[in-house]
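Translate sequence into structure tokens.
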Amino acid sequence: MSDIIHVLSDAVANQIAAGEVIQRPASVVKELMENAVDSGATSVTVIVKDAGKTLIQVVDNGKGMSESDARLCFERHATSKITNTADLFAIRTRGFRGEALASIAAVAEVSLKTRITGDELGTHVRIAGSQLKTQEPVQTPPGTNFQVKNLFFNIPARRKFLKSDQTELRHIINEFNHVALTYQEIECTLIHNQIEIFQLPPTNLRQRIIGVFGKAVNSYLIPIESDTSIIKIGGYIGKPEHARKTYGEQFFFVNNRFIKHPYFHKAVMNGYEQILAADHIPSYFIFFETDPSKIDVNIHPSKTEVKFEDERAIWKILLASVREAIGKHNLSPSLDFSKEGIIDIPVLTSETEVRVPGIDTNPGYNPFEGEHTFQREKKHHLYGENRTEGWEQLFEPAPEVAIPGNKYLQIKNKYILSPVKSGLMVIDQRRAHERILYERIIKAHENRQPLAQQSLFPETIRLNAADYQVCLEMLDELEKLGFDIRDFGNNSVVVHGIPSDMSPGNTADKLEMMIEQYKTLQSELDLGTNERIARAASSTSAIGYGKHLTEVEMQELADQLFSCGNPNNSPSGKSIVKIIDLEKLDNFF
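Result follows.
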């Protein structure tokens, strides 16, 4: 039998590694920016064209590379960060595996120009698909200049699955922000299609956050600080009143490395317990510092998943730190020390006359007088003419239960109950309204007759840079659905009108929620853009739980629901209507 096992070629092995490390243009930006930081750069410029599909260029003024290093850096597992196993447990640099440049060179056309300060000439290396094309001396400024062109040119299937330019640019902005927020002392610039998105000068953390997310963020940042033997915590959290229903300003960093940590996110949320609505997420920019040997950053190629040795202890320290920060800035509910209504306790002096408290009595009071009258009236009330009224008082419905008539009953301002031939019908009011709005929006889109209501006073809404790109991606389809939203530039849009089915008011919140819903639905590949927007719009606009409905409103909701094409399921597939049959009702008794 012939041998069937063989060693993969370097080119194929590098393409496999690239599949783990380089998932999209943003992955290239991340790796090259981290290399620039590790080179000691004080200025990093990122230039992209067509959201990185055509060009990704990262220029830094770091220490540069020698002629031999410029070639060797593209070899797999070539790294300046690790020399032995022990180094894996003391990592403070951003990159360390030596996979990034080899992976990039395997799936793109790469040009590297680099020069060490003091050298007369630098080195120019060109590689495409892991194959060295040229290497020659060149005149170039000190530092390093990487150009990555035609990403995935040799893997058409991978290139085909890249998203729209707005989506890919949003991911690039997110990776750019991770580095920019971590290294405030470095000047960071991002340019897309010759338009400057960010130009962030060296500064402190607070000013860097403002530079990334806008001046408005300054009003709701409060510092968080804790220093223990296990971990040091610093950074900022947001005031509860500025929390949003969408994600976007939640960041954890450990030893200046961005990480994702759902467990620690819960600690932050618990810190806001009872002072923040359950569906709101506070902003936070939290930095951890700990002994590198106490964490493992080598568990995922992206290095964003980190395992801590003392997770439970850190969770408790983080929770306490958040609560302390909130308390220090008078954000939590406090005691009311106003004098109105308090007991007046006089201050005793040496001249104050002390008297025994007096007791007033009525010597003529007879406790047995009128007893028979009292008992007779009690019996008359319970068993006589008023006994019906007494039962009604005993079984009066709770305040959250509305009884508008014989046909519909609203419970907890959440469910609508109605008797039907087979038993009892229960309708989820929010999901019902979501289904109604969804089908209306889709129908208006198909008929090209969007139902719009123009606003008397157009509202300008500023978004963070990433969400702004998402909104631009949505604009054409939003217009077909009845929205009149126009690009205003500088990460801002102007809302001139919304669909007539949407209730007016809170436009900024609704737009942010729609953007968040749209981002969440992007993982569902079978959904078209218009369907994602329709689902996001219907979810955002549907009446919430806790909304009291009149008899007429419940009747209209039920009538409109059962005229829908699919009255049984919400757009996301959740049940809207349940029937409790008579047999089950009988079994209850």
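Note: The chain has a mean pLDDT of 82.
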